[in-house]
Amino acid sequence: MMTHPYPFTRILIPYAGSASAQKALEWAAHLARAGGNAIEKVTLLRVIGGGYLARHIQNVDLRVTRMDQVAAWRRVRQHHLDHEILPLLEEGKRSLQEKGVEAPIETRVAEGKIGEKIIGLAVEEGHNTIVIGRRGLSPVKGLLLGSVTRQVLSLAREMTVFAVGEEVAFNPASPISPLLLPLDGSEPSLAAVRQGAALAQSFRDSNPQLTLLHVIDFALLDTAYADGNTLLGEEGEKILATSRRLLEEAGLQDMVAEKLLAGHPSRVIAGEAAEGHYTLILMGARGLSTLKRLFLGSVSSEVLHQVSRSIVGIIYL
Q: Cβ neighbours of residue 98 under 8 Å, at least 6 residues apart?
């Protein structure tokens, strides 16, 4: 039996104390406990964004150009740190410890554009996992309002991002089950299968259930039939078989189901997630540029906007 190395060894949790952030904290605690000694560190991060400045701008003399040189501003900022930010982070740290996280837990405070600061710290300190709470914004609102989750997803590289909504519910005894693994045959989707295998091995005693799903895109199906190509089903079977072998090599064959469906990929995945009451959707992100990810979206980001009761984990290579 092949044992997959635990992939979530450095976990970054942007934490603002909201309901979704607390749910993300709970999920991160499960990830950290499952990793055991493999977990190198867990970091709680609070980014002070522009909203805080807007609330306190009336206390600052705008004729002075350097904000950090204004005594009144420094006092307001320090009070905010001492009485709101740092206590919140310490509360989050205690919560993780109470939930059984034994890995070192650090706290960080940063100022600036929230999404950029989250990714910046993740890259600087070598975090391979971000667990972030999210609000249920539509794709249009997410674009126009610049949601933090969307910023993080558009900038992420070489890491896994888990987006956790406040409506997510999971069984503490088996928090990854049932697990949906959408596949497109790409290397990122195979990476998602390997990470799913590592999670399932960590929770093997709870007998987690995994479903491999390949969706034949209607657009490709129409083109294929017009060209006389009827091999898309066979290609889908091959994609499923490759991933099934990975799970069999990990000794998980008794926990795996497969589905081959057709339709609009993100809608089919979201529909399957709702119908099957999946706790976790783990999928790879295709290699879009940052600009394309931000403005055109992708199947993974579309799925994120269409589901509210599942955790969505997206792997970026």
A: none
d(CA 107, CA 43): 6
288-317 burial, b at 16+ Cβ within 10 Å, e below that, comes to beeeebbeebbbbbbbbbbbbebbbbbbbe
Express each pLDDT in 262-280 by its tens digit: 899 999 999 999 999 999 9
Cα–Cα distances in Å, from 66 out to 19, 77, 111, 205, 208?
35, 14, 15, 58, 55
Cis preceding-peptide flag for 178 (omega within 30 of 0): yes
Contact 73, 59 (CB under 8 A): yes
Q: Got the DSSP string for 173-218?
A: TSTT-SEEEEE-SSHHHHHHHHHHHHHHHHTGGG---EEEEEEEEH
User: What's the pLDDT tens digit per position in 35-91?
Assistant: 999 999 999 999 987 555 555 555 555 555 455 556 766 777 787 788 889 999 999
The single-letter DSSP state of residue 85 is: I
CB 19 within 8 A of CB 128: no
pTM to 2 decimal places = 0.88
* Alpha-carbon gap, residue 30 to 174, rounded angstroms: 9
Q: Could you give the strand order of the β-sheet that contains 179-183, starting from the edge strand earlier in sequence? A: 105-111, 41-48, 10-14, 129-134, 159-165, 311-316, 280-284, 179-183, 210-217, 256-263
Both tokens of residue 185?
A: 């045959």
* b/e code 8-39 from CB counts within 10 Å (16+ = b): bbbbbbbbbbeebbbbbbbbbbbbbbbbeeeb
